[in-house]
Amino acid sequence: MYISTLDPVLVGRVIAHFRQQSGMSQEVLSGLAAIGRSHLSAIERGERKPTLETLYRICTAMNVKMSAVILKLEEELDRAEKAGGK
After folding, report:
1. CA–CA separation, 56 and 75 (whole Å)
2. Which of 35, 65, 66, 85 is 20 to 30 A distant from 75 in Cα terms?
3. Tell me, what DSSP letter sits at residue 5?
């Protein structure tokens, strides 16, 4: 099933998952990624979607490949689709 937009809450949840796995606070990650902490917080809450550049900065700061984040996001999308189809 094609979904025309990407759920920003899901994107934020996946980013937060990787951040927590890395043991970083939002403050540390935002500093390493050179983005504002409030911006990162808004991304994790699903209030903003990161640009590709911002996602790259976040992933690089966590020492995580962007592909790993995208794969996790796709897994979560599949899970949400299956849950919605039941």
Report:
1. 19
2. 35
3. S
Q: What are the tens digits of pLDDT across the range 15-55?
A: 999 999 999 999 999 999 999 999 999 999 999 999 999 99
For the chain, what's the residue count?
86
Query: Half-sphere exposure of 81 toward its Cβ, with a 13 Å CA cutoff?
Result: 10
Burial class (CB in 10 A: 0-12, 13-18, 19+), 5: exposed
Q: Concatenated DSSP letters for 20-38? A: HHHT--HHHHHHHHTS-HH
Contact present, 66 and 53 (Cβ < 8 Å): no
* Rg over CA atoms, the chain: 13
